[in-house]
Amino acid sequence: MDDDRTPADELDFGPSGYLPERASKRARKIVLRAPLGAQWMVASLVAGVAVVVAGVLFLQQSSGAPSAPWVPAAEVAELDRATPSADGTVLLVVGASRVRAFVDATSLDYCDPTNRLESDDGRVWTLTGRGLGGATSLDEHPTTIHDGTVYVDPTRILPGPPASQDPAEPGCA
Description:
By secondary structure, this protein is α+β, with helices and mostly antiparallel strands. The protein is built from three helices and 13 strands, in the order H-E-H-E-H-E-E-E-E-E-E-E-E-E-E-E.
């Protein structure tokens, strides 16, 4: 036995684990010399409880109606395909997957035969706001639906999709 070992020599592998020579070259595994103590089980339980509490608090806070700057615009059950909002600032258009709120478009009408939006002067738009036949696309406000009410964020304006130069004839002029 070699008695000239110092305490620093004993700590080369660490107090609770070591890497065997072959594994240290490949860095694939760590062999523990002692089992994990009860403090590790307690710590994992505390971390799990903290995650559950944070999740419950998040779900409780996110289940309410949106706060300012979101404002209620209309009840979903009262909407036609294209309905001006109660305050007359946006045109609410019910599409296949969502409700859109187009800015300064309250003078447009929905045309059932073509399934498009049309103006009195013959310009045409798709229900996504894409301008057809040279018409400028419609900008929109973000929308969300909560408990059957459409909410609009009037502080943000999203640009419309690129306009299409494809010719489009009005179907309800």
